[in-house]
Amino acid sequence: NILQNPTANPIDFTVGGNFGLEGSGLPPNIKTPFRRGSLQTITFQVDDGIDLALGIGLKLAPDIAVEFETGFQWNKIRSIEADLQYVVDDEILMQDLTYRSTASGGAGDIYQVPLMMNLLYDVEVVEDLRLSLGAGAGLQWTSFSSSAIVSSRYPGALLSEPDPMNPGMSIYYPVPLQIDASGQAISFRAQIQASLSYRLFSGVHLGAYIRYSGSSIADLGALTFQESPNNLYRDSGDIDLGGFRNLGIGLTLSAAF
């Protein structure tokens, strides 16, 4: 299965805890609280995967059939790239400042399980050689999982705690942004397909197919932030993956009863 690299809508998130701004040159007891952040321009790099389908059909006319189909498609996520934007409250300048970085990583898996109804035009081109053309629509269950999406540098944030050696002062140390993303969703799916098959013996054909399918946006739920001190990152918006575009190429084996 050849999956066109998916994209995702921007994802907002917030944090809890006390933050400072890394490299700001501020005195250690001055805080610059983290207001909000977002992942933007999110793109995926995926490897070619597996396309497996199982269908059962019923003849409506000599050359027309209706088919119910299911199966699964699997692709490995090689990486996820995103722009990271975050806003902090600078107590010296008394205004919000916006900073930008990048985030990458995120190896994982995408599974698609369709439930389709297809209408097929199936005709014998020459003796023992059949051509089938079809189109269909239905629903798709999508499962998505990705881990360790990490910012290219600390996202402008340091965790602060009291300095036991210097009363009234604070110690700051960096807290990396590291995200896991996973979820499941149901979306609409449509497809077109064509196959050419040769009769091996009565009722049994072996052939090749090509199929192109597309699905609507999949709402996969919120991000999961990996464990960090005081659980600082939290409360994200939903992961909305852009519609999937699949090209499947392979072999078919059919039997008529």
Structure overview:
This protein is mainly beta and 257 residues long. The protein contains no helices and 19 strands. It has strands at 2-3, 7-8, 11-15, 19-20, 34-46, 50-61, 64-90, 95-105, 108-126, 129-151, 158-162, 170-174, 178-201, 204-215, 218-222, 224-225, 233-236, 238-241, 245-255. The strands form three sheets. Strands 1, 2, 3, 5, 6, 7, 8, 9, 10, 13, 14, 16, 17 and 19 form a 14-stranded antiparallel beta sheet that branches. Strands 4-11-12 form a three-stranded antiparallel beta sheet, with no helix packed on it. A two-stranded antiparallel ribbon has the order 15-18.
Secondary structure layout:
Elements lengths: L1 E2 L3 E2 L2 E5 L3 E2 L13 E13 L3 E12 L2 E27 L4 E11 L2 E19 L2 E23 L6 E5 L7 E5 L3 E24 L2 E12 L2 E5 L1 E2 L7 E4 L1 E4 L3 E11 L2
Antiparallel strand pairs: 1-19, 2-5, 3-5, 3-17, 4-11, 5-7, 6-7, 7-8, 7-9, 8-10, 9-10, 10-13, 11-12, 13-14, 13-16, 14-19, 15-18
